[in-house]
Fold TetR/AcrR family transcriptional regulator.
Amino acid sequence: MAAPIKTRERIIQASLELFNAQGERNVTTNHIAAHLGMSPGNLYYYFRNKQAIIAELFNQYECQVDTFLRRPQGRAMTVADKTFYLEALLAAMWYYRFLHRDLEHLLESDAELAAQYRLFSQRCLSHAQAIYQGFVEAGILLMDRQQIEALTLNSWIIMTSWVRFLCTSRGDPGDLSEEMLRRGIYQVLALEGGYIAPSAQAAVQALYQKLYVPLELVIPS
């Protein structure tokens, strides 16, 4: 028999669910407490305010990304690694999509979170550059240092703004689907199109087909 979920974890899970469905700005601690059938005072016993819940969710997101966004050690990289990174990024973006949608507002509301996010973004950019360098060394991508730098930055811009782009295009944060976010991952992969080595073209093309989502399914006509 599974152990019951602790109250603190229930609050975190419920908050994530409501933030993702309705947008963080539309959800208060009273909404979260009512959703869980508890008093606001009981919620405040575990979290002093909504920002504390958001900080915990960002910590979880940061830990998840830090776990996979690293260049493997002791071996050459393969196209399978590219699939792994893109799928892992998609999963993280989907699970914590409210963070991407409301990022600017969240950082403006919490100076400590903003400082933490800056360090996180710098670390992600550094690791991503190392990963692209690994693909170059493996002969999968043909790029120089400046091209790696530009590709890394452009990929980061797409990854961190894609959910907001979808919301401004569709107007409803609850209308998003994992398939729509998959198109964002495809957009990142498409940036590499001009740099793929001939020997890797077939394998990368198969990945293109796997990730492709028609634009009409993403942006309503």
